[in-house]
Amino acid sequence: MSQSPACVILAGGLARRMGGGDKPLKTIGGKTILDRVIECVTPQCAVIALNANGEPARFAQWKLPVVADSIDGFAGPLAGVLAGMDWAAQHAPLSPFLLSVAADCPFLPNDLVAKLESTREATDADICVAHSGDQAHPVIALWRVALREDLRRALVDENMRKIDRWTARYKMARADWRVEPVDPFFNANTPDDIAEAERLLREV
C-alpha cells in the first residue's frame, strides 16, 4: 500500500435540517460524532485537518488544524475537498491522495482507507468513492491531490457545485461495504437521525 493519505473531515455544512449549529458536536452514546470520526480515521491517515467555516475556536479542544473554504458563499462539499487538497499539498506532500469524510457519520469503518485504496489501485482510478447498499457516498472518498487546480477552476470559473458532475470527468472507482448490521455511512442530519443512531449504536 502507498503512503497513508492525508484526511480532511468535512464539517462546513449549515446543518439546516438539524436546526442549525454544528452537527458533529451532537452526542451519540455520550460521545460527540466528531470524536467518533476522529477516533476512526486517526490510525488510518498520515495527518488530519478539519474543514469548517466560521469561528474555528469552537473546535479548539480537538487540537486539529481548521481550514476554511477558499471559495466564498458556502460552495458545498467540493469547496471543502479543495480546502483539504490545498492543506494536504502543503502539510503532507508525500501523500498523493486525500481522504475526505463527512463529520456527521458516527459509524465509519475501520477498513475505510484500506478498501478505498485497494479498489483504487486495482483500477488506477483518480478518485475512489465509498458505496453501501445501493447508495454512493461521494463526500467519503479518496481524491488525487494533483487534481486540485482542476477542481479550483471548476469551482471558480464554472461555478460547479455538484460533486457528480465534476467526478464524471475523471477515472472513478467504487468501493463497496455491507449495510448490515449498520450502514457504516449512516449520517446524522436531523434530530430523528440522532435518535436512530443511539438505537443503532447498540447493534454495532
Name given to the CATH homologous superfamily? Spore Coat Polysaccharide Biosynthesis Protein SpsA, Chain A
| Terminal-residue CA separation | 28 Å
Our Rg estimate from Cα atoms comes to 16 Å
The rough form would be described as globular
Number of beta strands: 9
**Helical stretch tally:** 6
CATH topology: Spore Coat Polysaccharide Biosynthesis Protein SpsA, Chain A
Overall domain count: 1
Strand order of the largest sheet: 5-4-1-6-8-7-9
Helix content: 25-40%
Structural class: alpha/beta
- The CATH architecture classification is Alpha-Beta Complex
**Name of the top-level CATH class:** Alpha Beta
Mean pLDDT, to the nearest integer, reads: 92
Low-confidence stretches: 14-19
Order of helices and strands: EEEHEEHEHEEHHEH
Major beta sheet summary: 7 strands, mixed
Outline:
The protein is built from 6 helices and 9 strands; from the N terminus they run βββαββαβαββααβα. The chain is of the alpha/beta class and 204 residues long. The strands form 2 sheets. A 7-stranded mixed beta sheet has the order 5-4-1-6-8-7-9, with helices on both faces.
Provide key terms for this protein.
204 residues, alpha/beta, 30% helix, Spore Coat Polysaccharide Biosynthesis Protein SpsA, Chain A
Molecular structure report:
- This protein has 204 residues and is of the alpha/beta class.
- The chain has a single domain (6-201), classed as Spore Coat Polysaccharide Biosynthesis Protein SpsA, Chain A.
- It is 30% helix and 21% strand.
- It is built from 6 helices and 9 strands.
- The chain has helices spanning 33-41, 77-91, 112-123, 148-157, 163-167, 191-201, and strands at residues 6-10, 27-28, 31-32, 48-51, 66-67, 97-102, 127-132, 135-144, 172-177.
- The strands form 2 sheets. The protein has a 7-stranded mixed sheet, with helices on both faces. A two-stranded antiparallel sheet has the order 2-3.
- A hairpin with a 2-residue loop joins strand 7 (127-132) and strand 8.
- The longest helix is centred in the middle third of the chain and has 15 residues, at 77-91.
- The chain is globular, with a radius of gyration of 16 Å.
